[in-house]
């Protein structure tokens, strides 16, 4: 597997519907993970957020083409920072992706340190010094 750059859209509670539409347009395989699959109501700001999409992934011909999630603050997103760049790869890409994290995290606002997460991957999020939001995910 070679490291990839994949768009990651955030929605104000409509991620599942949007990704279902994109799946009907582009075909492929759609996977949706809701917050209630890995978090408690307290961890996500209340029971009303448990049914929101934590992560959705659309793959066409085995390749990821779009990721998405619901974000309670998505209504307040400012044009330009509403679509983070997701860098993904397999275990064989960890060293390269960790290097990219190290370089981009300098002078950045780190919202989630790069490390092991419940779904078995290494994951991290940051906003670089130029305002670009980055998601890093190295999975199996």
Protein architecture, described:
The chain has 140 residues and is an alpha+beta fold. Helices cover 17% and strands 39% of the residues. It has two helices and eight strands. An eight-stranded mixed sheet has the order 2-3-4-1-5-8-7-6, covered by helices on one side. The model has no long low-confidence stretch (mean pLDDT 87).
Per DSSP, what share of the residues sits in E-state strands of 2 or more residues?
A: 35-45%
Please count the helical segments: 2
Reading the helices and strands in chain order gives: EHEEEEHEEE
Low-confidence stretches: none
Gross morphology is: globular
Structural class: alpha+beta
Largest sheet: 8 strands, mixed
The proportion of residues forming helix, as a percent range, comes to: 10-25%
Number of strands: 8
Keywords:
17% helix; 39% strand; 140 residues; alpha+beta; 2 helices; 8 strands
In short:
With 140 residues, this protein is an alpha+beta fold. It has 2 helices and 8 strands, in the order βαββββαβββ. It starts with a strand and ends with a strand.
Task: Lay out the secondary structure.
Layout: E1 4-11, H1 15-26, E2 29-34, E3 53-60, E4 63-70, E5 85-89, H2 94-105, E6 109-116, E7 122-127, E8 133-138
Parallel strand pairs: 1-4, 5-8
Antiparallel strand pairs: 1-5, 2-3, 3-4, 6-7, 7-8
